[in-house]
Design brief:
Layout lengths: L3 E7 L4 E4 L5 E10 L11 E9 H10 L5 E14 L5 E14 L41
Parallel strand pairs: 4-6
Antiparallel strand pairs: 1-3, 1-5, 2-3, 3-4, 5-6
Length: about 140
């Protein structure tokens, strides 16, 4: 099974583009803090390149910005490529299946524009169901 769960902060603004066939693809990076640091107390982080396709990619590009905290669920993909000097390199990428935005709306560190996002209905506006009263004459129905 190839499945990865990552929680981290975007290291750059998402970059949305299209393939030649018109499929939306969004690429972004996240920094994930390690549980343990170095002996001098400095925290370490791992950096991952993430790719989100189609509607998921469009949503990430629209609402996420550098610094936002996100949860990414996906799978790891290894790919090889040739660098400028002709040396073969390997890259570890995460292909996102789901991205959840963890930075609260309107927080100081949130740079996303939620103005056109659908507003959530507050709990206080929900109608409470009405219950019908019944006559309990004390008889057991069975």
């Amino acid at each position: 099974m190839n499945k990865v769960f990552l929680i981290g902060n975007l290291t750059r603004d998402p970059e949305l583009s299209e393939t030649q066939s018109g499929v939306a693809v969004c690429r972004f990076g996240i920094a994930v803090n390690r549980r343990s640091g170095t002996s001098d107390g400095e925290r370490k982080a791992d950096f991952y390149n993430v790719t989100a396709w189609r509607g998921l990619g469009e949503t990430v590009a629209r609402y996420a910005k550098k610094g936002n905290k996100v949860a990414v669920i996906g799978n790891i993909e290894l790919r090889t490529y040739e660098d400028r000097e002709g040396t073969e390199r390997m890259s570890v990428d995460v292909i996102a299946q789901d991205v959840e935005f963890l930075t609260p709306r309107g927080s100081a560190e949130d740079g996303a524009d939620y103005s056109s996002a659908p507003a959530a209905t507050p709990h206080t506006e929900r109608k409470k169901p009405s219950l019908q009263s019944f006559d309990d004459d004390g008889d057991i129905p069975f």
